[in-house]
Design goal:
This protein is mainly beta and 148 residues long. The protein has one domain: Domain of unknown function DUF4426 (Immunoglobulin-like). 15% of the residues lie in helices and 49% in strands. It has 2 helices and 10 strands. Strands 1, 2, 3, 4, 7 and 8 form a 6-stranded antiparallel β-sheet that branches. A 4-stranded antiparallel β-sheet has the order 6-5-9-10, with no helix packed on it. A hairpin with a 5-residue loop joins strand 5 and strand 6.
Length: 148
């Protein structure tokens, strides 16, 4: 279990700090930071994909969201939230994305996969209500996908 936790933590760190993180964005609102990114599932290692029941494919994308409560003097505190997401393509076709909550090593994040096609631009609409807030935060992310 420890290997799995450090593997996913390492992958998330690399996603947030690598050139692939072009899709990584964050939205700050009312004392919270929502981190969100979208990647093709084909870049996940077979072990990580299997461990989280994610289908690795150049035709699938993965949306990853975390909700961090701003705490002065720290990097923040992960919190649970009610999170819904969907994607719109350029012609307005809507793809609902079913999200799962993942808790590991003090981290809380929400993941969901969705179909992608070559040269597709998707705009993701996220609706996030942190557990200790009555205010909903709307965040957006636009990502281009290319299939080799």
């Amino acid at each position: 279990m420890q290997v799995r936790i450090s593997t996913i933590s390492t992958i998330l760190f690399l996603l947030l700090t690598s050139p692939l993180a072009v899709a990584e964005n964050s939205t700050r609102f009312n004392g919270y930071t929502i981190h969100h990114n979208a990647i093709p599932t084909a870049i996940l290692s077979p072990e990580v994909a299997s461990g989280y029941q994610i289908v690795r494919s150049k035709y699938r994308g993965l949306l990853n969201i975390s909700v961090i409560k701003d705490v002065p003097g720290t990097t923040g505190q992960p919190v649970t939230a009610r999170v819904t997401a969907y994607a719109l393509n350029l012609i307005g076709r809507r793809h609902s994305i079913e999200l799962r909550e993942i808790r590991e090593s003090g981290a809380i994040y929400y993941i969901g996969d969705f179909p992608i096609v070559d040269q597709e631009t998707l705009k993701f609409i996220l609706e996030v209500t942190p557990e200790d807030s009555s205010r909903q935060i709307e965040a957006t992310l636009t990502q281009d996908f290319y299939i080799d």
